[in-house]
Design goal:
- About 75% of the residues lie in helices and about 0% in strands.
- It has about 250 residues and is mainly α.
- The chain has one domain (about 5-250).
- The longest helix has 25 residues, at about 45-65.
- The protein is globular and about 55 Å long.
- It is a multi-pass membrane protein.
- One of its GO terms (cellular component) is plasma membrane.
């Protein structure tokens, strides 16, 4: 395989991952596989390099969602702060500790998430409940843990985020995806700095992957804001992503 063919596979795979990340999550399962198995990066360098495309994708999708009135940062700032603080802590751990042991239990977490998504599906298709006020002593530790996970490993972060925001905070799935992109982009910029400081980023390969992820995220965000049935599509994509991830983790 020529270098050009390798990079073409990387960009196409990243484009698909960008779309999946925007509507559901776990697109990093694709990009991390490409970075390690196709491009040959060590796992810790792949983890850092992957964050470049995640940031550019999130920046593009956040702009589209904001432009179309689906991203309200002021309304949800109380959710953003604990996630951001947790992500910083997780990022600091990620540059010093391997996450391979955590991956061993990841597949069982995916099973739990699939059950959570399939039970009472109408909860995933409702509008944001503006009257709901979660207890601070519940959502702050929960969102801190969510951010810690995202800063540490990232893979599957989008799925966790949607489950917590849709089921726990009673947000619409499209608005949850919009907030997800903004929050992940915000803390990823800082995490990139942490990985770069430790020399754990391949900037050339990171930017190549970022091209595909950004295009995929941008186009998918436009679809999500223009198509009336986007919430149903996002829900079904989430189910497909979870089933595919579980199949890969248990069978291959």
């Amino acid at each position: 395989m020529t270098e050009l063919q390798t990079y073409a596979i990387a960009i196409i795979g990243a484009l698909i991952a960008g779309g999946i990340n925007t509507l559901a999550g776990n697109g990093s399962a694709i990009t991390l596989t490409i970075l390690t198995e196709v491009l040959g990066l060590p796992p810790n360098v792949a983890n850092g390099t992957n964050r470049i495309g995640i940031f550019t994708q999130c920046a593009a999708t956040s702009w589209v969602f904001h432009k179309n009135g689906r991203l309200n940062i002021a309304r949800h700032k109380k959710y953003i702060i604990p996630i951001f603080i947790g992500a910083v802590a997780g990022g600091l751990l990620a540059i010093n500790v391997s996450n391979e042991q955590f991956r061993a239990v990841f597949k069982f977490m995916m099973l739990f998430m699939l059950v959570a998504v399939l039970v009472r599906p109408k909860r995933w298709l409702r509008e944001t409940d503006l009257e709901f006020r979660p207890k601070w002593y519940i959502y702050i530790p929960l969102l801190f843990a969510l951010g810690f996970y995202g800063g540490f490993i990232q893979m599957g972060m989008g799925v966790f985020f949607l489950i917590i925001m849709v089921l726990g905070m009673r947000m619409n799935i499209i608005e949850s995806n919009a907030l997800k992109g903004f929050v992940i982009g915000l803390y990823t910029l800082l995490v990139i700095g942490l990985f770069h400081y430790q020399g754990l980023i391949d900037w050339k390969l990171g930017f190549i992957m970022a091209v595909g992820q950004t295009i995929g995220g941008f186009l998918t965000a436009r679809f999500a804001t223009k198509y009336k049935g986007a919430d149903k599509v996002a829900y079904y994509v989430l189910i497909i992503v979870l089933i595919a991830a579980i199949a890969k983790l248990f069978l291959f």
